[in-house]
């Protein structure tokens, strides 16, 4: 696992976007694993810019997202489908039929079946990740066990609390989500995790300091991946006590 320390969050996002752009440049029909949230969301303006400047072409690219809230329809402003459309897909030359975000509504078994079928379609060339305050990746929450394949997950109080900033109040935050499993994430050819902010310090410390791999901090499994890059800013690196 490689750790890159940048000067600030903007540089973190630009670095991650450059890695993704490099994959698309080498493989025009690349399959991207995408993420939502304010950290991963910071990467998309750089991809949009590169597309507008004709440095990368999305016409043959396909994408699959890490997760979606259970219960939110695609046009809900806090659904991850809505996030992806408004933060990336509507601004680049991607064919939206080549983008997949699990449905938040409908029969759970069917949703999970469709999610798993989409994951089987083609390997993910590069997977973008954020990290939850509790160390979750996608919505794989800490606990006694983690799950390999796409599944429904009950959100922890920490996650509901952290994500309530995007809703009118805590009661509006969905308590369940559909997420890629840990195996799906680990099967991606390359992982790029971006993190910023003091609230992530404990989770990131578990990830980049020491050798422990634990279901109590799902992000630590990234240590087992053969090609993973973690990008953080100096402020977070200092908080965590990370030295190059
Ligand atoms: C949500 C997403 C995660 C993301 C996390 C961090 O919980 N399901 O995939 O990593 O948010 O979000 P933020 O970057 O906004 O802190």
Structure notes:
By secondary structure, the protein is of the alpha/beta class. The protein has one domain: Rossmann fold (3-Layer(aba) Sandwich), CATH 3.40.50. 33% of the residues lie in helices and 17% in strands. It has helices at residues 9-26, 38-41, 44-52, 80-87, 108-121, 157-163, 182-187, 201-208, 234-240; strands at residues 2-6, 31-34, 62-65, 67-69, 99-100, 126-129, 151-154, 176-179, 191-195, 228-233. The strands form two sheets. It has a seven-stranded parallel beta sheet with strand order 1-10-9-6-2-3-5. A three-stranded antiparallel beta sheet has the order 4-8-7, covered by helices on one side. The longest helix has 18 residues, at 9-26.
* Number of H- or I-type helical stretches: 9
Q: Give the SSE order as H and E letters.
A: EHEHHEEHEHEEHEHEHEH
What is the CATH third-level topology name? Rossmann fold
What would you call the structural class? alpha/beta
Low-confidence stretches: none
Total domain units: 1
List how many beta strands DSSP finds: 10
Largest sheet features: 7 strands, parallel
Question: What is the compact description of this entry?
Answer:
This protein is an alpha/beta fold and 244 residues long.
Layout of secondary structure:
Layout: E1 2-6, H1 9-26, E2 31-34, H2 38-41, H3 44-52, E3 62-65, E4 67-69, H4 80-87, E5 99-100, H5 108-121, E6 126-129, E7 151-154, H6 157-163, E8 176-179, H7 182-187, E9 191-195, H8 201-208, E10 228-233, H9 234-240
Parallel strand pairs: 1-10, 2-3, 2-6, 3-5, 6-9, 9-10
Antiparallel strand pairs: 4-8, 7-8
Helix pairs in contact: 1-3, 8-9
